[in-house]
Amino acid sequence: MDRADILASIQDIVRETLDDDDVVLSETTKASDVRGWDSMNQLRIVMAVEKRYAVLFEVEEIEALADVGALVGLVQRYAG
Predict the structure, then answer these.
(1) CA angle (37 as vertex; 27, 69 as ends), nearest 5
(2) Are 66 and 30 in contact (CB under 8 A)?
């Protein structure tokens, strides 16, 4: 699975979750870089990503996410 495609999909999920079509993500984007991306929305985003790719991440993996690139990597590893 191509990282760019996963990133685009995650960007769509974040835009929908935050109701903000202007959000632009890169692999180095952190939640703190995006207005409205708080801990509750983090959970919503991760759950939407899990649903989209029919995967289930471990709690420790979710807690360790440092940036969008780490989330892309998880999707790539699980949905591969």
Answers:
(1) 15
(2) yes
Whole-number Å distance between alpha carbons of 53 and 22: 23
- Give me the long-range contacts of 54-61 (CB less than 8 A, separation at least 24): 54/79, 55/79
Dist CA 70 CA 40 (whole Å): 19
CB 53 within 8 A of CB 47: no
Instruction: Report the 10 Å Cβ neighbour count for 48.
Output: 17
Nearby residues of 29 by Cβ (< 8 Å), 6 or more positions away:
67, 68
Using a 10 angstrom Cβ sphere, with 0-12 exposed, 13-18 middle and 19 or more buried, the burial of residue 17 is buried
pTM as predicted: 0.95
pLDDT of 80:
76
